[in-house]
Backbone:
């Protein structure tokens, strides 16, 4: 398992919301910034997308492209920049019958809302720009995924939520891989994982975070001396191998605490500590509070966020 795949797999949350819409002009839709990641693509016609309060920098949406928008400010899509935009429920009611329209000016577009789970997912999102548009050339797998999504959404079918979830997974992997590959701001771990001197050690830490890794052991996996490995790792990632391992273990621990799937003993074993007491001490050093306090606070925050969730239409 490569490092990007590991992060994506651990970040994945099922139940993505996706909808295909046909809208005759005039039309406009407001989408709340509480969505962690929105995905938009126009299948036919044209549309425009802009962030809250900034219609002057509107981006044209055209067939064959996919636009991702990170959570934060509200964003809007419409038939022209700066048009009046409706809340999703009102929009859906207003354009409920446009799907049977023969109007050649009608726009057919797909909107998706994607929710990552935990800090590992948040780290992936933080590495993306606020708005990211990807062009799908002829022969690009991205174009095929868009076509499949559109086809699947055209009529309800048995098992459709599962199909849409999987297609959206593929869409996101292609989008993230494309952006990280070309962006100078790609996460340091992504660039380091492409370095043959570091890849084996990084994969090993991800695949078995509970193993008591040492720098000599990781260096041996990389085929380097201990000093050369430690220097190369620090130059690439800005931290020592053990600091990176600890950060990864704590990210995994936070997600276990958040999900409640393991008790402290199980978490300690999963992330490489000999006892729940050793884990609790390490967690306190890293976060400034014990794991139980952190979990309780996170649970209250999640309940507050849940009441503010928004979906597309």
Residues:
């Amino acid at each position: 398992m490569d490092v990007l795949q590991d992060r994506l797999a651990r970040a994945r949350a099922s139940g993505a919301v996706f909808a295909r819409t046909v809208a005759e002009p005039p039309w406009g839709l407001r989408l709340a910034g509480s969505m962690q990641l929105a995905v938009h693509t126009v299948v036919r016609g044209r549309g425009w997308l802009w962030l809250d309060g900034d219609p002057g920098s509107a981006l044209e949406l055209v067939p064959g492209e996919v636009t991702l928008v990170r959570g934060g400010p509200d964003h809007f899509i419409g038939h022209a920049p700066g048009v009046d935009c409706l809340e999703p429920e009102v929009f859906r009611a207003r354009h409920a019958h446009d799907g049977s329209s023969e109007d050649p000016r009608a726009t057919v577009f797909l909107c998706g809302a994607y929710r990552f789970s935990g800090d590992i997912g948040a780290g992936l999102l933080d590495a993306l720009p606020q708005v990211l548009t990807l062009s799908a050339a002829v022969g690009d797998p991205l174009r095929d995924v868009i076509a499949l999504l559109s086809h699947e959404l055209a009529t309800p079918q048995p098992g459709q939520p599962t199909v849409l979830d999987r297609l959206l997974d593929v869409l996101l992997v292609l989008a993230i891989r494309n952006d990280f590959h070309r962006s100078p701001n790609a996460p340091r771990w992504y660039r380091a994982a492409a370095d043959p001197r570091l890849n084996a050690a990084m994969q090993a830490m991800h695949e078995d975070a509970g193993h008591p890794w040492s720098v000599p052991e990781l260096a041996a996996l990389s085929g380097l001396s201990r000093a050369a490995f430690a220097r190369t790792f620090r130059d690439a990632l800005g931290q020592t191998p053990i600091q990176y391992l600890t950060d990864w273990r704590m990210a995994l621990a936070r997600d276990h605490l958040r999900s409640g799937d393991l008790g402290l003993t199980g978490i300690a074993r999963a992330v490489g500590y000999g006892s729940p007491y050793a884990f609790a001490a390490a967690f306190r050093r890293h976060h400034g509070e014990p794991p139980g306090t952190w979990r309780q606070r996170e649970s209250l925050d999640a309940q507050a966020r849940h009441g503010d969730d928004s979906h597309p239409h």
Observations:
- The mean pLDDT is 86.
- The longest strand covers residues 37-44.
- The chain has two domains: 3-182, 190-303.
